[in-house]
Amino acid sequence: MKFYQDSDLNLLCYGVGSKRDFLNVYVHEYIRMQHQSCIVINGFHSGTNLKVVFKELIGYILRTVNYGNKKGPQSLQDQYDFILRAFEIEKSVLPVHLVIHSLDMG
Q: N or C, which end of the chain has less CB nearby within 10 Å?
């Protein structure tokens, strides 16, 4: 997995059986030990949706970069646009790993 991460590639782990323990070990033993940012979202909770993912990403952006508005945009489209702009403008400042467990639930 390290090779793919170092190559700036996205990873999708799927199949029968849980990958949760494997991914959590990777997060704790590699990503966090390298002092890199990581957002872990438990998608198996019934309330997890795109708005929750966007909220986590926007919170990360607002904590990492000094934006004037500490609340962030409200509508889903505005949140999407905000996230895209932030990662385009602040690419070197905002490296983050996003781990979503059980994305296929719901």
A: C
